């Protein structure tokens, strides 16, 4: 029987190297890295975080997508949602003839256009179990780019379900990764999950465990982010904590501790093991980027530019960390820097809509730069060039 499921690529790296470099590489970023992550031009100093941009999971997903195009030049290729949260990368794939199947308003994918002879790419975030099963049933070729670190979370969550623990996932219920992760519990009869977004929601959950909140309050806050048939009184007795790989590491840790504390109060320290498990599933790439930014903002900076899709979880968290210390502009693309008017378009850290600020470079001499795990280096390089252009400067020739 012909092979229809691939998750290790096709060994065509050499053939696609040139295209990847053309689409995503930046000589300027290489130069800054080689120069100790600092670039000085006139009176402007740029400091680039030690870890930034494409992570191993994104590298791999993008490579497999390019390899798939080379391997199947004559086949129709579909992508379920976005390969990663970066508009530039998704547009490049569309330009290569990949069709993106976008979710409907109800969050469901319509696979009616997929034929058995087609190729379907599964993104780095993974795919809901039911969708995966459906596509397997169609018999099309599946190229699965789900990141290994995401699979690691699935293993934890599945283990919780197998052992009769409710999976408590620190994540965003609308995020592809969290949808895929929580769906893994459905592989086991009676598997259950609840998603908590932040410490505020965890507090309510813990007050319920401690008998201080009602089912009605829980229903209102969590009704849309629990497994089918969830019973708050029955299902919050044995709990296993995991997290979306790109959450704020410090918050994930605090959430697990708070839940352990509530369960200890209810059942006693001697019984905690029976009622509580936890596993830190923040991926190493997210951790390294968050650590690097904590180090960078210790430097004296006048402004911080964080580049990455507005729907990119890890980018939003980088911006959140920065904003505590320095004026921060989360931009989705280098084009958000507007040299003609001297303005910047950005998303405020706690906002949802993009806003514009005209005078953002006034008095700014020291600029920190980082980028989320789905931002290619050429977008970082272009952003720096556009900042220089705003000041009437250019990157000096290399000596
Ligand atoms: S952010 Fe982490 S989990 Fe997500 S693709 Fe990158 S390495 Fe994998």
Fold blueprint:
Elements: E1 5-6, H1 13-24, H2 27-34, E2 38-41, E3 44-48, H3 56-71, E4 77-80, H4 87-95, E5 98-101, E6 119-122, H5 129-138, E7 141-144, H6 148-162, E8 166-170, H7 176-183, E9 193-196, H8 199-209, H9 215-222, H10 232-235, E10 239-243, H11 249-267, H12 272-275, E11 276-278, H13 284-296, E12 303-307, H14 313-323, E13 328-331, E14 337-338, E15 343-346, E16 355-357, E17 366-371, H15 377-390
Helix pairs in contact: 1-3, 6-7, 8-9, 8-11, 13-14
Iron/sulfur cluster is lined by residues 55-58, 124, 147, 149-150, 245-246, 283, 285-286, 314, 373.
Helix percentage: 40-55%
How many domains?
3
CATH fold field value of the largest domain: Cobalt-precorrin-4 Transmethylase, domain 1
The fourth-level CATH homologous superfamily of the largest domain is: 4-hydroxy-3-methylbut-2-enyl diphosphate reductase, catalytic domain
Q: How would you describe this protein?
A:
This protein is of the alpha/beta class. It has three domains: 138 residues, Cobalt-precorrin-4 Transmethylase, domain 1 (3-Layer(aba) Sandwich); 92 residues, Rossmann fold; 134 residues, Cobalt-precorrin-4 Transmethylase, domain 1 (3-Layer(aba) Sandwich). Helices cover 41% and strands 17% of the residues. It has a five-stranded parallel sheet. Helix 7 links the parallel strand 8 and strand 9. The mean pLDDT is 96. The site of iron/sulfur cluster (SF4) has 15 residues, from helix 3, helix 6 and helix 13.
